[in-house]
Amino acid sequence: MPSLTKIFGSHVFDLRTMKACLSKPTFNALKRAIDGSARLSLEEANEIAHAMMEWAVGLNATHYTHWFQPLTGRTAQKHDAFLTLDEDFTAIERFSGSQLIQSEPDASSFPSGGMRSTFEARGYTAWDPSSPVFVMQRSNVAVLCIPSVFLSYTGHALDKKTPLLRSERVLNQSASESLELLTGRKPRVFSTVGAEQEYFLVDQEFFNQRPDLIMAGRTLIGCQPPKGQQMEDHYFGTIKDRVLMYMEAVERELYRLGVPCKTRHNEVAPHQFEMAPIFQKANLAADHNQLTMDVMQKVAKEHGLEVLLNEKPFAGVNGSGKHLNWSMQTDEGTNLLEPGSTPHKNLRFLYFLVAAVHAIHKRGDVLRSTIASSGNDHRLGANEAPPAIMSVFLGSHLSGLLDLVESSMDLTSAVISEIDLGLAELPQVVRDTTDRNRTSPFAFTGNKFEFRAVGSSQSVSLPTVILNMAVAESLDEMNAMLETQKDRSEKSILSVLRHFIKRSKPIRFEGNNYADAWVAEAEKRGLPNLRTTPEALIVWERDDVREFLTRSGVLAEPEIEARMHVKLEGYAKEIDIESSTLLRMVDNHVLPSSFRHQTHVAQSIQALAQATASAGMDAAGVLGSQAAYLDKISSHIARLLASRDELEAKVEAAPSFEHAKESAFYYRNQIVPVMDRVRSDCDSLESLVDANDWALPTYHELLFML
Ligand code: ADP
Ligand code: MG
Question: First CA to last CA across the chain, in angstroms?
Fold first, then answer.
């Protein structure tokens, strides 16, 4: 086995490879393009493209593709061969600078939320040099992938990457301005992201027999097995060999692609697992998380497994999230959310910490909207995942520190020493003492924030965009206030902090976010509780939100409109697919199985009646109890027939998807509750029907047989 450092990045055209393949001036030009300070000339692009092709061909690549992230939230690609015919129609391999820089896929079949009229189908993908190209290899097929943005003919972003790149610019501007005010120096600032990925594995044979897993990625029915996760024996348990082999294969492939996989472990629910990478610059981390999901799915099939990325594949056990760890870092390597050993003395740390708290207070509802999805609705607020109410957890030490800054009337250096006294025991251990509050959607965990409400199947781009923008906005406000102070002394900085600590106080919550009392308390504090996807998405209709999103140029009006439309429509369509699948399963599986079982029982009772009658026995008692059992089965069948009819009628009456908002609310309010009833009727029958008559793999098989 080659060592990790040998395989890591072996399929990435990284700086080291570039340096070896390119002339010095071109390499330097590319480095400037990577950090966004200059554009490449066509000659330079030609040299780079040629070098890339030679390198990729050395890894057996025959094709290249612009690799991008349309609003579907997944990745897209269209392969072109390096093959060209010259004037004599002789085959040669060629890859030009213009092919590298731009491509023109037909945009008409990607979701655009009405941004592109059907007669104008053109869209462009353009190379993002800040994320290195890589060769995706599956057995003996290899393709050069070029991370790209995806734009409409009118120049509007039709993808997830463009706004992320724009938001990095905005964050850099505000944060480096803060640093200049605080320290007199102005390094570049970028956000860092580490996306912990949770997932379920199921045996492929069982998966293939479940129409709901195939169509919807989650089980729509399924009676609870006697054992779920109540024994708490799966979390961090011994990883089964079959799963370990799978994890290892995924990681080897990801290492080649430069994805720094770090941690793997069993999660809380049976068959649930997690992979956490080492954090990177946000743009790269977002690309890598997409790659991770792709590779996980492909490799699973080779191991006779299927990976479930849906937020709630099984009722009754935990769903899956994607903890988005987020911080800000300077190009000198300083983590701006690192408290150091004496956070109370580290005003810079406090400044950025308070900016983040204020950002969530001000824009928590927008952040909430970025993680709204039909899958995540089943998770947020269920007793296992942070609720839909945004709040910030800081831990008792930091919270106490902010309280102290807030309450000190006399903000002189005397107060600073008082802080010193008050928290004398604090230094050194501060990282470890940020106690783990697993119930908070947005928790400070030592030297970064962890946004826990992101769904397992979601791209981390949009939540990162909003975090970047909201923190930039807070920093702008704080910078503006600091500029009006007479100097930049500790006293002035503390008075700015004090103002914003006060204002953002309602968002801070150290208690149990799962408790009902918190819902009431949050309401008293005026914190929004956007329970469902449609409610969360229409936040984007509000004028103040539009103003926030457009002000810094991260999203234009049509881009906002498009995203909201695509999400509302996607939500309605997802539930439409789920409800149609559910009806099919009822008609093709649950009812036939139940009728078979009912027939067996009825026949058995009839036989018993005949036998006892011909023997002259008094069978009234036994026959009565067996008839009651038959009645139980037939009543459940009757209830299911009624609920499935109601569901069918409601689905037929659904408004057109064109009316995205109306349709989303209809599916949420009219369809989802009936689906729940149909499910409960199915599950009652599943618990009664003869296992030989039940055609679908059960939870028992899906969750306990790897
Ligand atoms: P915890 O145990 O608190 O979850 P870890 O150190 O295990 O913390 O990190 C969890 C995730 O957070 C990892 O993906 C890690 O790379 C990421 N992470 C750590 N530091 C940062 C940071 N400064 N910015 C972004 N992500 C980070
Ligand atoms: Mg974590």
Answer: 26
